[in-house]
């Protein structure tokens, strides 16, 4: 009877443990019912991208839990520990795969329980698809008369498989091949997101009737460098519009944009002679429509001189004014000159305004010749003809000149006809030639004037720079004082009579020698005015300038050669002392050495020995020693430099410079260990913990160290020795260890410091008393069993090494015993529920006999009743006499029994009739009340006596 409660207790304990594990392992750490992760789609065959978060947020550590993929919408992922990794590339744009759903199984290894966790992996888009135009190319037609700003094409369309900003597209145009058909200068897309193509420059069918516009489609990826672009071509056909006037065309004219510029026709008639149809030169009048529309052309006169021209001449649709027959009514005009030739009785007379003229040499072609040197009045030639008068005098003349250097222009002025007319020798300064005037279209041998002789003087212009005579290299002995070097000479072709003097100057001298030389402005004599040393070279740029400001330059090379040398430079001291701080910046001057040279030659200084690591430099000219690189006194504290002074002849002397490096506070104190660990027992004030030591490479107060502690008030440190001690007694149970920071600081005004970490571990001492975790324990134990475990109690000892001895301080010690080590209470002998149903024990520990209420605990023990006592009938029924005719159900008697067990069901009594005789057939015993009643008709049997056996 006792085994069942034990098994029930074990089952309950097992269930509780399993429930606790299920709550801690395999749960989603975020508290959500679904895990949501993100991953970027693959670029090409990429599979190394990671999820965010990188691990599944499932509580538990592998291998305490086992994870696996149960189901998935697509076989993209494998699981590795708590990480999901791609097995193959994943493309978000392929079928718009925006997410993958998984079922992750998680098995708790300890309990062997398993659950499935839904996981959704969102696929993030990368910009891996360029926009694609829906058509390979586009085409449209637009009139050349379309105004600027007009939208001519609206059908650009693209698709981009990417999403969000990666899939947004903007349109733009790009330069093409820069030919006439490149549409980039003429069309634009002003609204990039709409892609509407507009006109941005006036179109001209006659210039180009087709354009090819390169159109770009670019996505709007957030990272500009990752944006992708596609291109297409929009072919734009330009339709001709009525925008051009008709144009007169003949071979000899100057064409601009397909039309003659100032077209002019000429015809001749003879005075008094009826000519009929005129012969028009240079060819018959012809006009055409410059548009491709080819509208009809008609001609008419507009006006003319004299005013009565229309009484003598008329025109049909083959000459005169040309006018289109289109709605635009565009037109153009040409001039028709009809010369009426008189009978040539008198030749033309040519009259110049002066017989001599003047013009500057090198004047451009077309420059007018003047009658005075100042250039105020032009030289004009006029023609008179006695055969012509009034309006008949409108006759054209050509001029024949016997030189190519000059001509007469259409206005009758004498002008320059050749460029670069030069009067400077050996060229002439005066031109003499003849001029004839001849009537245009005159008959051979007719219409020419008598020749007129003219002279033109070329005015002198300052158009030549002085020319310096080549200068040979000068070898100049070394020395000082003023001495002659060379003479500079120059000539000027413009200065014919020597009245324009040349000015000499020095423009530049190499090797910083400008102050060492000078030149006489008038004579060109060059002198050295300062000391020069052997081996030096100077390039002197000299300049010759004429009064008009024109100049030329030449180089005078001067090489300084050695003079007599009596001895080398000498230092006044054999040894020098200097000091420098190790913190001195590079190029900081330390000391300047000066040597004397008997010849006053230039001295060159150098360091020949002792310059460790190249820490110092010396100025070769001034002799100043300076810091070349950062000094470190802790590495080198003193130097002995040997300095050499030499002249250009390599004669020299040396001296020694002793340099002492002074200390700066540039080193931090450094502890012997970056981290210290010490141990100390609890409960001791002023206990020695340990000693730390730091070292500072600096000297003096820069290297004097003091120590300090931070991180706890429970310790102190000797500022000089670094010894650490406790300030008060420490308690292991309150804190097992302490973390401190020790600082070592030097004594410099600009102090530096170093730090180290200290861990102080507290050694436990047995100084704590055990206390019970509960004040009352409740337990139950079945009766009738000895050595039965009742309960185990627990007292906690705060010491690191627990020491608890349990005992029963009060209670039925004859019935119960307690294990002093484990706290387990057992029965010594069987208990009897019927004698006593409960017990109370007062338990304690040998280590804690104090007044603390937690020093003891009460164990309340309930005895579990068992059915161990048989029922007992309280009375024995006497024989009963009945008539065999009694009705069925008649109560014969009542039997009563009692049971000494104290609890149900052991104390509950049930009655029944037993036996193999006939009595059970005719009599019934009520199972609860014990009533015996007649069950069947007694007359069925001949028996007169029945024995009813009943059982309780």
TrEMBL record:
GO molecular function: beta-catenin binding; cadherin binding; calcium ion binding
Species this chain originates from: Trichonephila clavata
The keyword Iron appears for this protein: no
Biological processes annotated in GO: anatomical structure morphogenesis; cell migration; epithelium development; homophilic cell adhesion via plasma membrane adhesion molecules; intracellular protein localization
Protein's cellular compartments: Membrane
Listed name of the protein: Cadherin-99C
Record key words, sorted: Calcium, Membrane, Repeat, Signal, Transmembrane, Transmembrane helix
Gene field: Cad99C
Cellular compartments per GO CC: catenin complex
Signal sequence segment: 1-26
Main location: membrane
Protein topology in the membrane: Single-pass membrane protein
Residue ranges occupied by any Cadherin domain in the UniProt entry: 76-133, 134-248, 351-468, 485-571, 572-671, 672-772, 773-873, 874-948
PANTHER family in alphabetical order: CADHERIN 23, CADHERIN-23
Matching Gene3D superfamilies: Cadherins
SUPFAM superfamilies the record matches: Cadherin-like
């Amino acid at each position: 009877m006792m085994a069942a409660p034990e098994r029930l207790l074990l089952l309950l304990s097992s269930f509780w443990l399993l429930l606790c594990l299920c709550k801690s392992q395999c749960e989603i750490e975020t508290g959500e019912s679904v895990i949501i992760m993100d991953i970027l789609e693959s670029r090409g065959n990429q599979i190394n991208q990671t999820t965010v978060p990188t691990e599944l947020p499932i509580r538990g550590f592998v291998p305490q839990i086992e994870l696996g993929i149960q189901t998935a919408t697509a076989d993209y992922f494998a699981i590795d520990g708590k990480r999901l990794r791609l097995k193959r590339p994943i493309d978000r744009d392929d079928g718009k795969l925006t997410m993958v759903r998984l079922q992750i199984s998680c098995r708790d290894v300890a309990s062997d329980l398993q659950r499935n966790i839904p996981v959704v992996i969102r696929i993030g888009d990368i910009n891996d698809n360029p926009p694609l135009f829906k058509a390979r190319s586009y085409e449209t037609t637009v009139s050349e008369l379309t105004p600027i700003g007009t939208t001519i094409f609206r059908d650009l369309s693209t698709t981009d498989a990417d999403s969000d900003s990666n899939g947004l597209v903007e349109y733009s145009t790009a330069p093409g091949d820069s030919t006439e058909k490149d549409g980039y200068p003429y069309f634009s897309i002003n609204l990039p997101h709409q892609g509407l193509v507009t006109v941005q420059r006036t179109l001209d069918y006659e210039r180009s009737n087709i354009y090819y516009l390169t159109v770009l489609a670019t996505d709007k990826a957030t990272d500009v460098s990752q944006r992708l672009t596609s291109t297409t071509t929009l072919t734009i056909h330009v339709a001709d519009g009525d925008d051009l006037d008709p144009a007169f065309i003949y071979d000899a004219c100057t064409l601009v944009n397909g039309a003659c510029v100032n077209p002019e026709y000429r015809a001749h008639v003879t005075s008094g002679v009826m000519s009929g149809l005129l012969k028009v030169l240079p060819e018959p009048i012809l006009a055409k429509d410059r548009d491709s529309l080819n509208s009809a052309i008609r001609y008419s006169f507009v006006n003319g001189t004299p005013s009565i021209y229309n009484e003598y001449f008329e025109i049909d649709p083959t000459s005169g004014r040309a006018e289109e027959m289109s709605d635009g009514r565009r037109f153009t005009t040409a001039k028709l000159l009809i010369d009426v030739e008189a009978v040539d009785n008198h030749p033309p007379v040519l009259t110049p305004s002066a017989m001599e003229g003047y013009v500057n040499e090198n004047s451009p072609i077309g420059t007018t010749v003047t009658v005075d040197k100042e250039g105020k009045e032009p030289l004009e030639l006029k023609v008179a003809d006695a055969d012509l008068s009034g309006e008949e005098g409108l006759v054209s003349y050509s001029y024949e000149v016997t030189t190519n250097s000059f001509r007469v222009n259409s206005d009758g002025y004498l002008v320059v006809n050749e460029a670069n007319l030069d009067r400077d020798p050996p060229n002439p300064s005066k031109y003499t030639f003849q001029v004839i005037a001849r009537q245009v279209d005159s008959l051979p041998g007719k219409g020419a004037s008598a020749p007129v002789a003219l002279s033109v003087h070329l005015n002198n212009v300052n158009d030549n720079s002085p020319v310096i005579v080549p200068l040979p290299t000068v070898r100049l002995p070394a020395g000082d004082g003023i001495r002659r070097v060379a003479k500079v000479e120059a000539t000027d072709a413009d200065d014919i009579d020597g009245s324009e003097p040349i000015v000499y100057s020095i423009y530049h001298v190499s090797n910083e020698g400008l102050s060492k030389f000078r030149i006489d402005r008038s004579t060109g004599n060059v002198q050295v005015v300062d000391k020069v040393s052997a081996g030096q070279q100077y390039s002197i740029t000299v300049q010759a300038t004429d009064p008009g400001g024109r100049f030329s330059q030449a180089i005078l090379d001067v090489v300084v050669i050695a003079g007599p040398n009596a001895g080398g430079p000498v230092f006044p001291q054999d040894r020098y002392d200097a000091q420098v701080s190790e913190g001195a910046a590079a190029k900081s001057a330390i000391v300047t050495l000066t040597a004397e040279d008997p010849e006053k030659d230039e001295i060159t200084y150098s360091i020949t020995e002792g310059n460790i690591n190249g820490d110092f430099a010396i100025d070769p000219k001034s002799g100043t020693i300076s810091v070349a690189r950062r000094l470190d006194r802790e590495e080198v504290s003193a130097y002995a430099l040997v300095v050499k002074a030499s002249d250009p002849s390599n004669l020299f002397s040396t001296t020694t410079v002793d340099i002492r490096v002074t200390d700066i506070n540039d080193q931090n104190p450094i502890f012997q260990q970056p981290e210290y660990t010490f141990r100390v027992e609890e409960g001791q004030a002023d206990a020695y913990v340990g000693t730390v030591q730091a070292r500072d490479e600096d000297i003096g107060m820069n290297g004097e160290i003091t120590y300090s502690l931070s991180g706890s008030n429970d310790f102190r440190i000797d500022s000089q020795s670094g010894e650490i001690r406790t300030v008060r007694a420490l308690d292991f149970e309150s804190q097992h260890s302490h973390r401190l920071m020790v600082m070592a600081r030097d004594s410099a005004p600009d102090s530096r410091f170093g730090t180290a970490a200290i861990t102080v571990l507290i050694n436990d001492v047995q100084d704590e008393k055990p206390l019970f975790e509960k004040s009352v324990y409740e337990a139950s134990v079945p009766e009738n069993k000895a050595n039965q475990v009742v309960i185990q109690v627990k007292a906690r000892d705060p010491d690191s090494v627990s020491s608890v001895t349990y005992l029963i301080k009060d209670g039925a010690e004859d019935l119960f015993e307690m294990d002093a080590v484990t706290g387990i209470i057992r029965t010594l002998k069987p208990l009897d529920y019927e004698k006593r149903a409960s017990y109370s024990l007062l338990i304690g520990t040998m280590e804690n006999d104090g007044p603390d209420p937690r020093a003891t605990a009460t164990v309340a023990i309930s005895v579990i009743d068992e059915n161990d006592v048989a029922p007992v009938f309280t009375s024995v029924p006497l024989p009963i006499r009945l008539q065999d005719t009694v009705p069925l159900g008649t109560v014969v008697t009542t039997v009563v029994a009692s049971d000494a067990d104290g609890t149900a069901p052991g104390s509950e009594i049930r009655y029944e009739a037993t036996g193999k005789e006939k009595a059970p057939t005719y009599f019934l015993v009520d199972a609860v009340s014990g009533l015996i009643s007649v069950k069947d008709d007694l007359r069925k049997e001949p028996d007169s006596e029945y024995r009813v056996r009943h059982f309780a």
